[in-house]
Amino acid sequence: MLAFLFFICLWVLFTVVSMVFLDKNTSFDEHIFIWIRPYINSRNTSILKFISFFGSHYFLVPANIFLAAAFLFYKNHRKYSLKIVTISLTSTIVLFSLKEITKRERPLLPVIANVPGYSFPSGHSFSSLVFFGMLAYVIFRTIKNNLLKYTLIIGCFSFVLLIGFSRIYLKAHFASDVIAGFCLGTIWLVLARWLLIKTETPVDDGL
Question: Where are the alpha helices (DSSP H) in the chain?
Answer without folding.
Answer: 2-17, 27-36, 42-53, 57-69, 78-102, 123-142, 146-169, 175-199
